[in-house]
Amino acid sequence: MGYRIAIAGATGNVGRELLNILDERGFPADEVIPLASSRSIGREVSYGDKTLKCRDLDTFDFTGVDFCLMSAGGDVSKKHAEKIGASGCILIDNSSAWRYHSKVPLIIPEVNAHVLDDYMAQNDRLNIIANPNCSTAQLLVALKPLHDAAVIKRIVVSTYQSVSGGGKEAMDELWDQTKGIFVTDEPTPHKFTKQIAFNVIPHIDVFMEDGSTKEEWKVVAETKKILDPKIKVTATAVRVPVFVGHSEAVNIEFQNEITADEAREILRNAPGVMVIDKREDGGYITPVECVGDNATFVSRIREDSTVENGLNIWVVSDNLRKGAALNTIQIAETLIERGLVQKAA
Question: Which of 54, 89, 134, 290 is catalytic?
Answer without folding.
Answer: 134
